Structure formats: structure tokens, C-alpha cells
Amino acid sequence: SPATEGEYVSKEQWGSRIGVILAVAGSAVGLGNFLRFPGQAAQNGGGAFLLPYFISLLVLGIPLCWAEWTMGRFAGLRGFHSAPGVFSVVCRTPKARYLSVFALLIPLVIYMYYIVIEAWCLSYAWSYLTGDLMLGADPDAYNAFFDNTVGAKADGHVFGRGSSLLIFIGITFILNFILIYRGVAGGIEKFCKIAIPLMVVCALCVLVRVLTLPSDKVVAGLGFMWNPQPEALLNPKTWLAASGQIFFSLSVGFGVIINYSSYLSKKDDVVLSGLTASSMNEFFEVCLGGLITLPAAFMFLGVSVATFSTFGLGFNALPNVFAQMPAGQFFGFLWFFMLFLAAITSSLSMLQPVLAFFEDGFNLERHASTAVLGIIALTGSFFVIYFSKELKALDTLDFWVGTVLIFVLAMIQAVIYGWVLGIDRGEREAHVGAHIRIPHFVQLLLKYVVPVYLGAIFIAFCYLNV
Ligand code: PHE
Fold first, then answer.
1. Is pTM beyond 0.95 here?
2. From the CB of 28, is ligand 1 less than 6 Å away?
């Protein structure tokens, strides 16, 4: 894009408007939508989870998402793409970069376990192709298959050494790094432009298939989601989990959107793009993730769904459903292949902010920063793989990083936007190039309601858990 005088033009830019929306949507739509959301809902009150969930979406998720798009582009136009740079330029003091450590650490640590689950998906897709996963109507067989795939119980480690899973982890890793190496427009954007439409088609096929199963089963399954356990609403953990899920799912709160939007130009509409990307995410989460995984899980596992690990739910229940439908092998493949695509477009967005940090902060060339990042990520993943003694360890890691830390960083960002950048400035910046307006009360939400709301949940949670 042509720069006005004195304006910095970054060496990397998104190729098109639809491209950047798909890239952000790709980051948002991921395992969080199809596996984490149903898992969280099942563990936190079933249908009752939806109330705090939607409140968090409207009060926290979308407003913070706009704040991130705005701050990211603001800093990007001044030549900063990674969280330390963005925080210092928005706060106008280099000291602010210390606040941004989390914004680098969170995506990196999430990457370390996320990639493993991404590889499970690839491995399941493969097992459908080869027919290994057509085990008939026997829920125990699928539990055993899952334990076997991930290596649980084999030798006390989650992922048994030498299991074929390592091959899938290897393929997943390499694919991620090739795409990252190709750059924002040439790798991430190109891939998302193909992957997202493909995901929509696959997911809709599976949805239609699941909802046209014998109706008594479908109704019982859906009933679980819409029959709330209201007691759960009294537990602050439900509220913490709901807001954590919103942040995790929208990729809001931890430096991902800040980084992606820093490759935008002045003419880009951050308001509409942010809203579009978030809406796409909710469609995938509530309409597809919620209507496929959760009812299916309930149909076959009954109330015991709440005892499954967050990410494990989808691997135990859905294969039962596929086994009992015509052409189940084909639908099973579609589903897990779709999950794999969804996961890659997300894991790319966990790497890019860190890559940008190496490039900006240490002046490394792309191949050097990709290599350094690859070594760090690989080492981290191996720690996750070999030191998690049981599946619940992943849940614990996911709870502390994917819920609590994200929550803290989201709070920091809200304060930076509302109090340091200031909502007047923020509001002006957000509307540069915008076609629609953000209602003014959203700014007030960001300044007053978001920090208080987050603070209150956090204090209640700490108080009740210590
Ligand atoms: N939003 C992604 C999902 O729903 C997860 C994610 C986490 C993406 C961290 C980027 C960074 O699966």
C-alpha cells in the first residue's frame, strides 16, 4: 500500500482484506472450538455454562478484540510487530515491554501442548483412512484406542515412547514451520484462504450427518447442552472458565491479534474485520462445536462426560457416532481432517508473535529466527510429552496457562487500552478506515467494566481456592 509521507511501511503486509480476516478467524477457530469448548461446558455446568459464556463474549471478548486490533495496527504503523514493541509504543515507555513477557510466553507454551493434540487429530484422520478406527458400537473400544494412540497408561507416560504418534508430531511440526517460514502473506494467509472454506464444508457435512441420526438420541444429546445445572453459576470457577474459554477461543488477550493486526495498513477497517472474525469463531464454536461434539458425547457417554479430560472428550465420543452411521469412515475422516486444519491455522498464530519478536528484538533474519524458534518449541513439546504422567496433566497446564495466565494478561491489556492509551485516543484510532462505528459505550466497558469484572472473578476464584 502506498505510504503517506513519513509513514512507516512494514516489510510484511497482508495480501488482502479477506485474507487477514481469514487469518485471524483461522487463529481463532481451532481445537478450542471443537474440543475445548464442549469439554469446558461439560465440566462446568453443562448448559449453565452458556450464560457466563455469552456474557463474557459480549462484555469482554468482543470489546477486547477491538482494543487489540486497534493497538496492533497503531503500533504496526510505527514499525512494531511484537508484543514488547507494541506495549512500549502504546504506553510510550520502553519499560512497558516487561509487561509483555506473558504475551510471548503464553502463545509459546500453548503451542507446546497444542501441537501434540494437533498431531492426535492427524493420527485419527489417518486411522479413519486406513479403517483402523471402525471398531463397532463399543464405547470401551474407543477409549482403549484413544489411550493407545496417545500412549496413556502404556508406560506411565502420556505418550508412550516410540509410539507412531511421534511420526505425526513430526509431520505436524514440519508443516507448521514451513508455513511460518514462508511469511505472513505467503504462508499463513495463503494457507488460511484454502483451509477455512474447506473446514466449513467438512464441518457442515458432519453436522448434517449427526443431526439426522435417530431423533431420540439427538434430542437426548442436545438436552444435555440445554438442561443447565444452575448450581454451577454460584461457583466462581465457572465464570473464570467461561471468560478463559472466550479469550482462548477468540485468541484474544495474549498478543496474537496484536501481532496479526500489526501487519495492517491505515486503510484497513479494524472494526468490521474484528467483528467478522469473532463472529466466524462463534459460529464454529456454538453452532458446530456445540452441536456436534457435545450432543454426540452425551449420547454415548452419558453424564460421565464431565470426567473426561478437556481435550480428550472429542476423541472418545465422536468415533462411536461415526461407527454407527452409514459412510461413517468417510465422515470420521472428514471430521478429524477438519480438526487438523483448524488446529494448524491456530498454531501458526502462536508462532508468528514469537517469530516477530526474534526478528524485531534481535534483528535476526527469518531463517535464523525460524530455526531458534523451532528448537525452543521442539524442546518444550518434548517436555510436555515426556513429563506429563497422565492426561490430566495437560488439563492442569491448560488451566494455568490457557485460562489463568490469559486472564491476567487480558486484564493488563484492558488497563493499557483504557487507561494508558486512553479511550478517546483508542476510539479515534479504531475508526481510521472503518466502515462501521463501535457504539461509544464499548469504550466505557473497556475502561471500567472489563477491569472490574475480571478483577472480581479473579479475587473470588483465588479466595475460594486457597
Ligand atoms: N483460538 C485457538 C482455538 O480456539 C487457540 C489459540 C490459542 C490460538 C493461542 C492462538 C493462540 O483453538
1. no
2. yes
